[in-house]
Amino acid sequence: MNAPHSDALAFFGATGDLAYKKIFPALHAMARRGNLEFPVIGIAKSGWTLEQLKARARESIEKHGGGVNAEAFAKLERRLGYVDGDYQDPSTYAALRKNLGDAKRPAHYLAIPPSLFATVVEGLGRSGCARDARLIIEKPFGRDLPSARELNKIAHSVFDESSVFRIDHYLGKEPVQNLLLFRFANVFLEPIWNRNYVDSVQITMAESFGVQGRGAFYEQTGAIRDVVQNHMLQVVGFLAMEPPLTTYHEAIRDEQVKVFRSIRPLDPGDLVRGQFRGYRKEPGVAPDSKVETFAAVRLHVDSWRWEDVPFLIRAGKCLPVTTTEVLVKLKRPPLRKLGEGDTNYFRFKLSPDVIIAVGSRVKRPGEAMVTDPTELKLVHHQDGEEMDAYERLLSDAMAGDGTLFAREDAVEAAWAIVQPILGDVAPVHEYEPGGWGPTEAARLTEDIGGWRDPSP
Predict the structure, then answer these.
(1) For residue 264, what are the contacts with CB-CB under 8 A and spacing of at least 6?
(2) Strands 106-110 and 8-12, bridge-based pairing
(3) Quick one: CA dihedral 58, 59, 65, 69, positive or negative?
(4) The pTM is what?
(5) How many angstroms separate the Cα of 112 from the Cα of each of 19, 50, 88, 108, 121?
(6) How many whole angstroms separate alpha carbon 198 and alpha carbon 143?
């Protein structure tokens, strides 16, 4: 399907942190590749001028975009416009419409708090700015299932679902897409990628840092809302989905939704929550906070392919390393005397470098017929020419390609999985910074030999 390309980009929250760290560097990269052939209008209520916004953009790219390319930045400067105004004021949208000029198919990017979504969507609708337009929405998309449904209702009051693009930047990352391609581009995987051969699946998303001064934000979020409901479940979807119909553009998203609907809603017994020592002393954090900075869950995927195969997820802050790793452990061969310890596995490291590894066993030198574990490994070091997630997602949204965006039914199905474990439904166990989280998380993996900790 060849959707018409958006002919302008308006982004609300132009003076905010997300624009500074991600959006301006992405726009600069698009200009460098020759893909910024449309006007870009920033909207915010900051009392700024266009020149101040341009200076902010340059500073942003110098700090977060790998340095300013003079030719690319000149193109971005020429394309850039600015509307300073209140989101509740109709004149703000009238000024936006004027700045859009001859554009007939704009894309509106809401890099703003969810509490302002309704105001902006309704303002776009009343002003005519939403006609033949697209809506790009930044996460978090809701705090729970009811609020996600309400946001969907608000978006659909003005925009058709086919014109709504919900950003989960994790889906735009090259390594995450590589995981999907590795599964379906290699014929040797399909015969064993099921409950007959797979013993367990572990996904670890570790961050060696804390909340980095964002305590007030994290108090409203926690690890489950921040990464489990979205990023980690997306990875589960890629690992567990059926082969997509390559001739149908919605096929990948259809298969993702099928996986989410096959996962049982989580029970508090499937959850271990943790909080690193010192979190309660962070600015903006309540002295008696029960918000989790670590979460480990055990998922049950009730499908023909995955019945009885445990999927384990853990994510946390102040852990020993910053990395995301997937371990698909295969079942043991019949003769145990061939080797104790690690059996076969596939290991996918998604960051900071991309590693695809196969765990196998080879004969130990000598007369005895015994084996030692070894690992066959492919390492891909990312370079500066690869697309950043935001550049890829903005380019896809402007082109009308929704493959890497969360669809309405997927968002709601993912929230339905975690809904029973939101809030203070399980104890929060304190853990020391620099460790692998609370020791209580070990109970989730007792029957599969414990957690495998990623290496640095």
Answers:
(1) 299, 300, 302, 417
(2) parallel
(3) positive
(4) 0.91
(5) 10, 19, 14, 12, 12
(6) 34
CB atoms within 10 A of CB 149: 15
- Are the C-beta atoms of 299 and 311 separated by less than 8 Å? yes
Query: What residue spans of 80-201 are helical by DSSP H?
Result: 90-100, 117-127, 145-156, 174-185
3-class state of residue 237 by DSSP: helix
Convert the pLDDT of each residue in 178-231 to its tens digit: 888 888 989 999 999 999 999 999 999 999 999 988 898 899 899 999 999 999
What stretches of 20-89 show up as alpha helix (H) in DSSP? 24-32, 50-64, 70-79
Considering 28, 108, 169, 231, which one is annotated as catalytic? Answer: 231
Determine which helix (DSSP H) or strand (DSSP E) holds 254, and give its type and residue range.
Answer: helix 251-262
Q: How far apart are CA 203 and CA 238, in angstroms?
A: 12
- CA–CA separation, 155 vs 75, rounded Å? 32
Q: Provide the total of helices (H) and of strands (E) in the chain, helices listed first.
A: 14, 15
Q: Would you call 64 a catalytic residue per the annotation?
A: no
